[in-house]
Amino acid sequence: QVQLVESGGGLVQAGGSLRLSCAASGRIFSTYTMGWFRQAPGKEREFVAAIWSGKNTEYSDSVKGRFTISRDNAKNTVYLQMNSLKSEDTAVYYCAGGSTWPALQIFEYDYWGQGTQVTVSS
User: Fold this and answer.
1) Per-residue pLDDT averaged across 32-41, rounded?
2) Contact yes or no for 85/9 (Cβ under 8 A)
3) 78, 81, 96, 107: least buried by Cβ within 10 Å?
């Protein structure tokens, strides 16, 4: 069983930055694909970014060039650095863990965190 706990959300002005963290329990964190999804009010949950090894990453077109996903296997933690934030980035951000790669779909993930709110004011 893997438990995921997100942190780092908050309120930021447009153009600003935030870094989300996701701490994972479990001995085999390093073998997992880790992803970030988000869900805005009234919208479906959507893929944001994913990372397998340190060199294998995927991003949605809407965040490519602005967001960076990374992981520290020694700390069992995955990060999402979000720069140049826009009002449309406002959403609850979820961390997820899965065992396949690439993994851009919700059904490809087995474990989910509780989410952290990110609000970007314009």
Assistant:
1) 96
2) no
3) 107
What is the DSSP code (8-state) at residue 51?
E
- The two tokens of residue 35 are 């992803």
- CB neighbours of 101 closer than 8 A, spacing ≥ 6? 33, 50, 52, 56
Tokens matching residue 78: 């995955």
- Dmax (CA) for the chain in angstroms is 42
Does residue 27 carry a pLDDT above 70?
Answer: no
Write the DSSP symbol of residue 81.
E
Give the model confidence (pLDDT) of 56-101 as tens digits. Answer: 999 999 999 999 999 999 999 999 999 999 999 999 999 999 999 9
Q: What are phi and psi of 72, to 5 degrees?
A: -125, 100
Q: Which amino acid, 20?
A: L
Residue 113 to residue 1: CA distance in whole angstroms: 13
